[in-house]
């Protein structure tokens, strides 16, 4: 299909497609459009956000199936071919012959690129290697001074994943403050978030608002955009004295405070009622995986709060109430809370 038709057809599945480069749209149209239409016929919506355990298992199954068909030795060779220059030509030929793109994305209603990145994260032997030692941090600073933001090169030199070295560098690149937030830091954070929000809205509105409408328009946005998919490394750079995780946690606290007008939630009788509501609602959902929970919808079990606040409260509840929770599945944790903790909370209330 031509570019305009591709944009029009993809918009049904990827609402922000008009903000994507023409090159990427052509790639998505080639790899995903037919798949998306097939999923639509089956009544399955295209998904974004965190992968569920079911989807992770499907990726593992797809990769293992492809390895058995082609005889490629390992998932690392398949997904990190550039690490094996002597086998590169053979592997790429086998990928083309046996339709690697189609096989990898089989049964997963997501854009191919996201599935590919997820597969690389699952099968990268350089992932999940624990804390960085002092020596590694010094090496990371040195390599960054030499190679800048070439995370692929740095990751190979350090035997860590691209994402790991990039995020770790963002934490150690400057003197980070670990104490209470000052008024000046909080103001910087709020201005940084507002700036990225405005930039995002200007991009989204390019085709939909006239210049006079744009000049009159204030920052009116969907609530979800206040705390979902914000560019935290960019915000971190604007704040300057805090790393991205601290910025994210502080922003959630600020939002919770604003949305509840400073009311102290999760205390006394109201706190007990909130826990009871949260457990009941989770139990009624009957989901097997936390990534399938609509936390946004659940937020009104506690009050007018961000989803991150509800997720944090659930985490605290399971850690303090469920013995050996690390060894239990999500549904087992919810069942335990419903059967054991709920009666105790109702009695206390």
UniProtKB/TrEMBL annotation:
<dbReference type="GO" id="GO:0005730">
    <property type="term" value="C:nucleolus"/>
</dbReference>
<feature type="domain" description="Myb-like">
    <location>
        <begin position="124"/>
        <end position="172"/>
    </location>
</feature>
<dbReference type="InterPro" id="IPR001005">
    <property type="entry name" value="SANT/Myb"/>
</dbReference>
<protein>
    <submittedName>
        <fullName>TTF1 factor</fullName>
    </submittedName>
</protein>
<dbReference type="InterPro" id="IPR017930">
    <property type="entry name" value="Myb_dom"/>
</dbReference>
<feature type="domain" description="HTH myb-type">
    <location>
        <begin position="124"/>
        <end position="161"/>
    </location>
</feature>
<dbReference type="Pfam" id="PF13921">
    <property type="entry name" value="Myb_DNA-bind_6"/>
</dbReference>
<dbReference type="GO" id="GO:0006363">
    <property type="term" value="P:termination of RNA polymerase I transcription"/>
</dbReference>
<dbReference type="InterPro" id="IPR053078">
    <property type="entry name" value="TTF1-like"/>
</dbReference>
<feature type="domain" description="Myb-like">
    <location>
        <begin position="173"/>
        <end position="255"/>
    </location>
</feature>
<dbReference type="GO" id="GO:0003682">
    <property type="term" value="F:chromatin binding"/>
</dbReference>
<dbReference type="InterPro" id="IPR009057">
    <property type="entry name" value="Homeodomain-like_sf"/>
</dbReference>
């Amino acid at each position: 299909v031509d570019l305009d038709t591709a944009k029009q057809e993809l918009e049904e599945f990827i609402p922000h497609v008009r903000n994507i480069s023409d090159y990427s749209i052509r790639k998505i149209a080639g790899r995903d459009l037919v798949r998306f239409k097939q999923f639509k016929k089956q009544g399955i919506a295209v998904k974004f956000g965190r992968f569920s355990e079911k989807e992770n298992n499907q990726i593992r199954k797809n990769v293992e199936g492809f390895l058995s068909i082609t005889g490629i030795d390992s998932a690392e060779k398949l997904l990190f071919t550039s690490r094996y220059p002597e086998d590169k030509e053979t592997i790429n030929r086998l990928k083309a012959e046996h339709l690697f793109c189609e096989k990898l994305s089989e049964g997963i209603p997501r854009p191919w690129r996201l599935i590919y990145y997820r597969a690389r994260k699952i099968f990268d032997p350089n992932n999940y290697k624990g804390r960085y030692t002092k020596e590694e941090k010094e090496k990371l600073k040195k390599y960054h001074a030499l190679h800048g933001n070439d995370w692929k090169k740095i990751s190979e030199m350090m035997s860590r994943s691209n994402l790991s070295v990039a995020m770790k560098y963002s934490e150690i690149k400057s003197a980070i403050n670990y104490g209470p937030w000052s008024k000046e830091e909080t103001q910087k954070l709020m201005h940084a978030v507002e700036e990225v929000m405005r930039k995002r809205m200007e991009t989204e509105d390019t085709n939909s608002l006239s210049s006079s409408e744009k000049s009159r328009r204030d920052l009116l946005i969907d609530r979800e955009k206040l705390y979902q998919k914000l560019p935290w490394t960019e915000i971190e750079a604007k704040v300057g004295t805090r790393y991205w995780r601290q910025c994210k946690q502080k922003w959630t606290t600020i939002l919770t405070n604003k949305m509840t007008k400073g009311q102290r939630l999760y205390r006394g009788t109201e706190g007990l009622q909130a826990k009871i509501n949260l457990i009941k609602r989770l139990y009624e959902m009957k989901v097997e995986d936390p990534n399938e929970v609509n936390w946004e919808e659940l937020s009104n079990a506690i009050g007018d709060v961000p989803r991150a606040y509800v997720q944090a409260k659930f985490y605290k509840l399971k850690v303090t109430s469920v013995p050996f929770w690390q060894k239990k599945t999500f549904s087992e944790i919810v069942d335990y809370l419903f059967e054991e903790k709920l009666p105790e909370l109702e009695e206390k209330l």
